[in-house]
Design brief:
- It is built from four helices and 24 strands.
- By secondary structure, the protein is mainly beta.
- The protein has two domains: 232 residues, Oxidoreductase, molybdopterin-binding domain (Sulfite Oxidase, Chain A, domain 2), CATH 3.90.420; 110 residues, Immunoglobulin-like (Sandwich).
- A hairpin with a 2-residue loop joins strand 10 and strand 11.
- The protein binds ligand MTE.
- The site of ligand MTE has 18 residues, from strand 3.
Length: 355
């Protein structure tokens, strides 16, 4: 199902909210809050009060504590600009989700302000703690699981949790975190796909053994089994990927100079080059990269192509990052997550545009 709501996000599924901007709304380096994609797992979105909200710290070597928002805000904070992308962005969804997944716009960049998770644990975390489990205040039916789920849950390895850039965030682009993005506090795990950035945070549990639960074992894995479950390795670090903002696929364009532009991102790595090929990948031209460069954030790119022939014009865009990773050339037929292959666009060059 696809419904339109004026100038705001397109609601592409209403079972649990899944909304995303149109490509034409995406030119800015910082995504305005009202155009930032929304990905909820459950129909009931928590409505939490900032006074009553508590974050419970529990587990191995941790003294049980309930942290208030006022306390969190009293700690030294920092802000980071981070591009967040849904692991399913551009992949092959099932049923009604399929169409919107191809749109590649479940990605946005915001300035997040918060407190490093590590700052909450005054006493040293015992060396036996290998992972932390983050739980949200939301739960209910997940279409991939027969039994209702208590709460959204993600297990994250110790080193990533205690990294100085992993934040408990209460502000998004200078405003209190909007309800749909996790009010009052969410986790932001820079460089990892969005599923680990748990919204409406309820608790953090330190563990010495893996918890083993639906969201770690059967969801957000790289392969699908015949039984419809997911297997393979866990989806975590973002791949290198690019998005063409203009022109759009199928667009009719006048003969002459054609400006081509878009965005590219690579998780915790930097985007070092974005190339375009007009001959199916035999030769590549470097695009010009935008001046705005921030760690964990996307980078703008552009190139002007001189079209001197009418007819279809095909091009392919491929980004490369500072770790030497390049976008895969071929789309994988049955891959749900990490769909970071190159984008292919066909436009039609015409001698004149009809009114
Ligand atoms: N956290 C909770 N508690 N519940 C959720 O459904 N969805 C996750 C993640 N955190 C989710 C969550 C997924 S899959 C993504 S991609 C991001 O939140 C989306 O964040 P956004 O809706 O703010 O863009």
């Amino acid at each position: 199902m696809s419904t339109s709501s004026g100038d705001g996000l397109m609601v592409t599924r209403v079972r649990a909210e899944l909304s995303q901007p149109r490509v034409s709304q995406m030119g800015e380096f910082i995504t305005p809050n009202h155009l930032f994609f929304i990905r909820d797992h459950f129909v009931n979105r928590p409505a939490l009060s900032d006074d009553e909200w508590r974050l419970h710290l529990t587990g191995a070597g941790v003294q049980d504590t309930a942290v208030s928002l006022a306390y969190l805000k009293s700690l030294p904070s920092k802000s980071l600009t981070v591009t967040l992308e849904c692991a399913g962005n551009g992949g092959y969804g099932r049923g009604a989700d399929r169409q919107q997944h191809h749109m590649r716009t479940m990605v946005g960049t915001a300035v997040w302000r918060g407190v490093p998770v590590a700052a909450l644990f005054e006493d040293e975390i015992p060396p036996e703690v290998t992972e932390f489990v983050f739980r949200g205040y939301d739960g209910g039916e997940d279409p991939d699981e027969p039994v209702p789920i208590d709460c959204y849950t993600r297990s994250i390895p110790r080193a990533k949790v205690l990294d100085v850039d992993t934040l408990l965030v209460y502000q998004m682009n200078g405003e209190p975190l909007p309800r749909e993005h996790g009010f009052p506090v969410r986790l932001i795990v820079p460089g990892w796909y969005g599923m680990d950035s748990v919204k409406w945070l309820r608790s953090i549990e330190a563990r010495t053994t893996p918890l083993g639960h639906f969201y770690d074992d059967h969801k957000y894995r790289t392969q699908w089994t015949d039984a419809g479950l997911q297997a393979g390795r866990r989806v975590r670090e973002m791949g290198v990927k690019s998005l063409v903002l203009s022109p759009s696929n199928g667009q009719r364009i006048l003969l002459g100079d054609i400006p081509i532009s878009g965005l590219a991102w690579a998780g915790r790595n930097d985007v070092t080059s974005v190339y375009i090929s007009f001959d199916g990948g035999q030769s590549w031209q470097p695009t010009e990269l935008g001046d705005e460069v921030r760690p964990y954030s996307w980078r703008a790119w552009s190139l002007t192509h001189k079209a001197d022939e009418v007819g279809p014009l095909d091009f392919v865009v491929r980004a490369v990052d500072s770790a030497g990773r390049a976008q895969p050339m071929e789309a994988l037929p049955a891959r749900n997550y990490e769909a970071n292959w190159v984008q292919r666009v066909r436009v039609f060059v015409v001698a004149g545009l009809e009114p």
